[in-house]
Amino acid sequence: xxxxxxxxxxxxxxxxxxxxxxxxxxxxxxxxxxxxxxxxxxxxxxxxxxxxxxxxxxxxxxxxxxxxxxxxxxxxxxxxxxxxxxxxxxxxxxxxxxxxxxxxxxxxxxxxxxxxxxxxxxxxxxxxxxxxxxxxxxxxxxxxxxxxxxxxxxxxxxxxxxxxxxxxxxxxxxxxxxxxxxxxxxxxxxxxxxxxxxxxxxxxxxxxxxxxxxxxxxxxxxxxxxxxxxxxxxxxxxxxxxxxxxxxxxxxxxxxxxxxxxxxxxxxxxxxxxxxxxxxxxxxxxxxxxxxxxxxxxxxxxxxxxxxxxxxxxxxxxxxxxxxxxxxxxxxxxxxxxxxxxxxxxxxxx
Length: 350
Hints:
Layout: H1 2-19, H2 25-33, H3 37-45, H4 50-53, H5 62-83, H6 86-112, H7 116-120, E1 128-129, E2 132-133, H8 134-138, H9 143-148, H10 156-169, H11 173-191, H12 196-223, H13 229-233, H14 245-253, H15 257-262, H16 277-296, H17 303-328, H18 339-349
Antiparallel strand pairs: 1-2
């Protein structure tokens, strides 16, 4: 324990300082009462997001504002990676790689649709994908050539394997799902490099993320792509999470929402309030927010503290992104669209 305290004391102080800049329930109250993007933008200038927005004008569109919010998240990853003990770096890098994977999927879609120029402005502000230079990948003439440029990354072998399926179907879906699977499988592997004192809370974080990803995948493939249960199971992440393969198989085969919800384990009872498959993802996000806050109050001298902070900030930005998008399009946010805000309000009222 003493050794862990010594290892994590400095990075814990850094994490605590970063966490102090999180938006409060009062901040959210003001942001939700804002009439337009200008008011939201001006308010955010007075928060720790301000330095990332200062070069933008109040007339800037919500998409560019959102990407700058994510720039602050990636800066925090960079800061913490400098100071966490070497055995914890793998977990943080694996968490950040989820955004590198989103960029890779976007590049794949851009090349497939011959829209390379259009997708450049939509990429998360990261310079690489699994150690490979982003600019070089963007210069690939096509999808097959892009895959060849990924030889030094963990994405190469699985993508190479599904290229015939991509060519036969003429759609990028198999490639996108393969990128997701490779990303989350690497996240599971990152836990193996942790010692016992670090692994417990980190495992809880990863379990929730994988369960959320699997539930979202089942609902999406069932509702949007109309895939069979057997096909859906092939796209799920196994080896971690509270939902084992047997439970995931049952969920994939469930025909109605009521049956689906009845199959969820006790720890996910809050999901049973869902009135549609699409609500499950948001309710799961609130469960994750609650877990992140809980971990943040536990033993601070373990890598789960840094992981929880970064994931909490991620949720904060996702909630801001939904708010900015709704206001930018002149839409009304549906109740429950901001799970983190709902959890902060619940805590402040208790």
